Amino acid sequence: MYRRLATAPRTALQRCTSSSLALPLRPTCSSCTVARCCSALLLGPPLPKSANAGFRSAAHYDVAMIGGSRGGKVMRLCGTQRRPFFSLSKASRREESSASDARALSSSPSTPADRAAEPSSAETAGVASQFIDVDASASRVEAQSDLESKLIELRRLYLDPYDKVYLFLNPLKSTTPMVMMLGNHSAGKSTLINYLSGREIQETGIAPTDDGFTVIKRDTFDMDTDGPSMVSNPKYQYQSLQQFGISFVTHFKMKTRKMPETSQLPMDMVLIDTPGMIDTPLHSSKPSASSPNASDSMYSSDQTRGYDFLGVTRWFAQQSDVILLMFDPANPGTTGETLDVLTKSLAGFEHKFLLVMNKADAFEKVTDFARAYGTLCWNLSKVMKMKDVPRVYTTCTPLGATARAATATTAPATSSTVPGTELSRQRNEIMNEIMSAPIRRMDNLITETEDSARSLLLAMRAAKLLRQDYRQRELLVFSALATVCLFGPAMTMSLSSVSLIGSSLLVMASAVAGCVGLVAARAYLKEFERGLLQSSDYVLSRLFTSKTRTKDVELRWYRIVKPEIMRVVSTYHDNGANGIPRLPICSARACRRMEAVIDDEIPSLRRSVAEYKESHFRRNGESAVGRIKQVGQEGCS
User: Fold this and answer.
1) What is the mean pLDDT of residues 225-236?
2) Which residues partner with 225 through β-bridges?
């Protein structure tokens, strides 16, 4: 429950209504209205006295009831200064609670005059009437803001100083919850967006209707924004998309639309519509390994679309909270570009995406449904190396006036091959996943920071080993060269009687040999560096034991860390310098700090977010699910 208290008197006793239970409030000090709940139960701690001073000059106070530890309640007042949701440890809360109890007892009125100054029940009821209900999303936005502040502080202290070259950390600018629609052309992506929006926003059709990425945002007005304006405006969260060039920016836009009250799209969430994935003659004929275009990502994206489609898709996948990968019966996962997206763009984001076989109401025979479903699972098995079959949602999108969506390009289905109740049930599950994107955003923010910290720590340790091996070989080579060029002539001159001319010639020969040896040593070290990078997988066996070398570590190394190290080394090579000696590393103390962030700080934040989510769903779960179920009873025709 989220309430707002406006312009309350300073020494008044407040009352907070929680369901049918009225909890009395009392001030924590004699000069401030900051109050705490008093009940027979052990309640959460109030604000510390140092924070109370910030509220004495505030005109309004925001009071938030959130789930505290051990099932308690925490009352937090938000004014000119705000107490973070996820900042205090349990020990700090206990110490703070004891101190606040002492302050509350000392500030309670003990004289008749003081008791006379207390407000009557009528006055208290008048104050209680000043509480204004606020949408639950306001509390979530506030909690997410506090979480972002904590993550930014952790990054600034322990991660950012060592990530200036590797760039594992993504800036925490994508604060808006995001749902991305991926799939073949005519898979029903635009139709689903229109259904969620309650009005026709995207064009629908059997043939490809859109060749770019479109951001759908709900607001109180209609406006279109082109790509160059979005990527250059700090108001939006898409500045880093400039790295993909003007070819992509011209295929990027945002549609801000006023939607009806029946729209299911929240105000604080955006949808991403992507171009349909298709096969082209260029994509179907792969280049040879010796070809200059041997890179699958470059070949399949830059040559067929004009920009790095797989790279852009991966960027949006990193920012998205829910990803829908949609298929239709006509193309059940047979396009090569779809398989490339699964193996390259969505690698590592399996916890975010849902596999959806849309238009399941179009089957007239059960054998056709079985054949299409089997074909989809067969194609997915080529890229998803798992023993178990992944969950594939079979559903359809409601059409017509009841859905307030775009008109269908296909005739309404009349078959009963797949029961309509089953289609509605699975559509309800998909809708629940989509609507949970805002609350899942906090978990994804923590996951992004944790993954970046683990990748950065692994890169630092691997770079340290590579640099040590390179330095050892470099020292050995130059020591041998110095021995040959300096000590050899010196020993020759000392052990034999050499004339002055002979000594001069010997020195000149040593100098020439030294120059030739230096060139040969540099060429040898460059070749050694190349071989060291090619066999760099050995660092895993030196950094981890057989028990600690998990599948997650190997995937992180092969997919993220090793390619990034190769990129950094290649950048130095392009500038004419050796790459391995210039790889950034950190001290052992800095590595221990990163480990503390991963092992202590991140789990603490996850526990706090889990407590908040439990409180959130306890308050709003039934109403949200009920609304979705009511909408889900619509048919697909």
Assistant:
1) 89
2) 254
> Cα separations (Å) of 411 from 151, 181, 397?
50, 23, 13
CATH topology of domain 174-279+306-405+414-418: Rossmann fold (3.40.50)
Q: What is the CB neighbour count within 10 angstroms for residue 154?
A: 17
Residue 502's pLDDT is 66
Per the confidence metrics, is the pTM higher than 0.85? no
* Cβ atoms of residues 637 and 400 within 8 Å: yes
Distance CA 436, CA 443 (A): 11
Reported residue count of the chain is 637
- Token representation of residue 179: 């749902």
Torsion of CA 272, 278, 282, 286, to 10 degrees: 90
Q: How far is CA 275 from CA 123, 144, 178, 190, in A?
A: 61, 31, 17, 10
Q: Which of 148, 151, 154, 168 is nearest to 594 (CA)?
A: 154
CA torsion sign, 134 to 428 to 271 to 199? negative
Does residue 299 register a pLDDT over 70? no
Q: Which of 294-308, 415-429, 541-555 has the highest mean pLDDT?
A: 541-555
Whole-Å CA distances, 234 to 150, 237, 240, 469, 538: 22, 7, 10, 44, 43
Band (pLDDT 50/70/90 cuts) for residue 61 is: very low
The whole-number pLDDT of residue 459 equals 94
Domains of the chain by residue range: 132-162+446-636, 174-279+306-405+414-418
Q: How far is CA 205 from each of CA 23, 200, 209, 334, 564, rounded to the nearest angstrom?
A: 58, 13, 7, 20, 41
Which element (helix H / strand E) includes 103?
A: helix 90-107
Query: Cα angle at 254 between 243 and 442, to 5 degrees?
Result: 75
Phi-psi map region of 71: left, alpha, beta (phi>0 left; psi -120 to 50 alpha) = left
pLDDT number for residue 492: 62
In this predicted structure, what is the pLDDT of residue 385?
Answer: 73
Structure tokens at 365: 């025979």
Give the strand pairing for 60-67 and 270-273: unpaired
SS3 64: strand
Helix residue ranges per DSSP H, 129-226 = 136-154, 189-197
Distance CA 460, CA 328 (A): 45
Contact (Cβ atoms closer than 8 angstroms) between residue 231 and residue 249: yes
Task: Count CB neighbours of 121 within 10 A.
Answer: 9
pLDDT in tens, 445-454: 899 899 999 9
pLDDT in tens, 266-297: 888 999 999 888 765 444 444 433 333 334 44
Please identify which residue in the block is written with the tokens 């924070």.
Answer: 51
Three-class SS state of 7? coil
Q: Are 394 and 418 in contact (CB under 8 A)?
A: yes
Give the span between the Cα atoms of 562 and 166, in whole angstroms: 11
Nearest alpha carbon to residue 76 among 118, 108, 28: 28
State the pLDDT at residue 483. 79
- Edge to edge, the sheet with strand 21-27 lists 15-18, 21-27, 35-37
Task: Name the amino acid, one letter, at 327.
Answer: F
Per DSSP, the three-state class of 80 is coil
The answer to whether the beta carbons of residues 208 and 185 sit under 8 Å apart is: yes
Only one residue has tokens 């629940």, namely: 432
